[in-house]
Amino acid sequence: MFKKKNEQKPEGGASPVETVKAAKEAEEARALRENMDRISHKILVLSGKGGVGKSTVAVNLAAALAAKNFRTGLLDIDIHGPSVPKLLGIDSEKLTGTEDGRILPVDYGNSMKVMSVGFMLSSSNDAVIWRGPLKYSIIKQFLKDVTWGDLDYLIVDSPPGTGDEPLSVCQLIEKAEGAVIVTTPQDVALIDVRKSISFCRQLNMPVLGVIENMSGFVCPHCGKKSDIFKNGGGLDLAREMGVPFLGSIPIEPAIVQNGDAGIPFHNAALENTTPAQKAFSDIVDILCKRKGEKQ
Ligand code: ADP
Q1: CA of 189 to the centre of ligand 1 (A)
Q2: Domain ranges of the chain
Q3: CATH number of 30-290
Q4: At what angle do helices 132-144 and 16-37 cross, to 10 degrees?
Q5: Model's pTM, two decimal places?
Q6: Which atom of ligand 1 is nearest to the CA of 49?
Q7: Could you tell me how far CA 133 lies from the centroid of its own chain?
Q8: How many Å lie between the centroid of ligand 1 and the Cα of residue 150?
């Protein structure tokens, strides 16, 4: 004789469906923790606004760490505008998986592994139209199912603002090192940095520091600096909000040229001599020293 439906759920207990769902969630949480525990330092790169150079900083930070022989991962969760593949010149790569359902990151050089939504699109002109829950689920897959292996650093390039993507990452990575916030010097950009800092505080995500990008232009001929977008706002804001200031990167036409050509401007193969390269080196050193890593 069949049991009545309500007899299948003991009073105060879970139904079989709920039990299976809870077991699946527990298994997923375990797999996520296991994958993330193999990565020593997880750093989120955020910005209040788009176009301030956040992806450029994320890509060059990862490339600089890899050049120091740190095993580095770069995860691009800028779902609506994934620019990491283009900035690294690997935009023709496609997502590949293993038979057991894991996702293989794209190797960049010897010490860097990259994953981006861009690898899932058939063309870079494709628009991704996903709602919050789907974004959460793909970000979870990138953290849980990508075979990152043992890494020293995972740099996560998040879209601008305080939307679903940074929120998902903050919720999914239990022990993140913290966030680096990129801004430009103008008031319109700085207003949104305050929001990014308060977002981090609400989610207990430590703020590793603020970087002021596009901070003046040093003339390559006479060496004189012109403050095209003002300068110093990032430092003032960091002081006002009580967070570290990591440094200023000037405007340099070579950064655009390298970005368009898919070459990190902070490339070990390039001489580390321009004002932007030097400024960036100092920022990477500050971040590494903060962790007590050997240079
Ligand atoms: P975001 O990720 O904040 O939207 P990107 O990193 O995509 O911004 O940068 C936007 C554009 O600005 C790119 O063309 C990039 O090459 C350029 N850029 C970034 N930083 C600098 C800089 N310091 N000097 C000159 N161009 C820069």
Answers
A1: 14
A2: 30-290
A3: 3.40.50.300
A4: 50
A5: 0.91
A6: 3
A7: 19
A8: 30
Q: Which amino acid is at 73?
A: G
Is 51 touching ligand 1 by the criterion CB < 6 Å?
yes
32: CA distance to ligand 1 center in Å?
32
C-beta of residue 47 within 8 angstroms of C-beta of residue 196: yes
Spacing, Cα 200 to ligand 1 middle (Å): 23
Ligand 1 atom closest to the Cα of residue 214 is 23
Q: What is the pLDDT of residues 39-94, one digit of tens each?
A: 999 999 999 999 999 999 999 999 999 998 999 999 999 988 899 999 999 999 99
Q: Does the Cβ of 55 fall within 6 Å of ligand 1?
A: yes
pLDDT at 1 over 70: no
CA distance 136 to 164: 7
Distances in whole angstroms, Cα of residue 272 to Cα of each of 64, 214, 216: 11, 18, 19
